Amino acid sequence: MVNVLFALILFLLVISLFSSLTMMYNGSLLKKHSDSNFTYLSDERYKTVIKNGARCRRISLFLIGCCLFLFIICIVILFTTSKKEFHSRYEPGSDGYCIDTIAYENPTWSYEKCEDFLFLSEEEFKEKY
Are 20 and 75 in the same domain? Predict the structure, then answer.
């Protein structure tokens, strides 16, 4: 879940970077238009560039806001999820406690395999499994 959110944040950051680069390009066109005696852009194109620049600014600010929001959600998820803790209903040192410990350390093993690991010799266990 957290990996998906981090991937989404990365994707949104790439998009916002692209829109920021587009804004910079539009800004350089506007600077060329206003600083020189030559007309690089017609008045219609000038208005379009300004309108597109404003749209890109709004989009990039929205995307950056989304990235920050998702980043905060990721941090909250990371800090609120509890790690898997070991619990046993048996007293420490008992056979049940040892079996529960083996099952906790090897989550893919069946309960029977954990019992065999505890009670069989190493050769018998290797032979059986």
Answer: yes
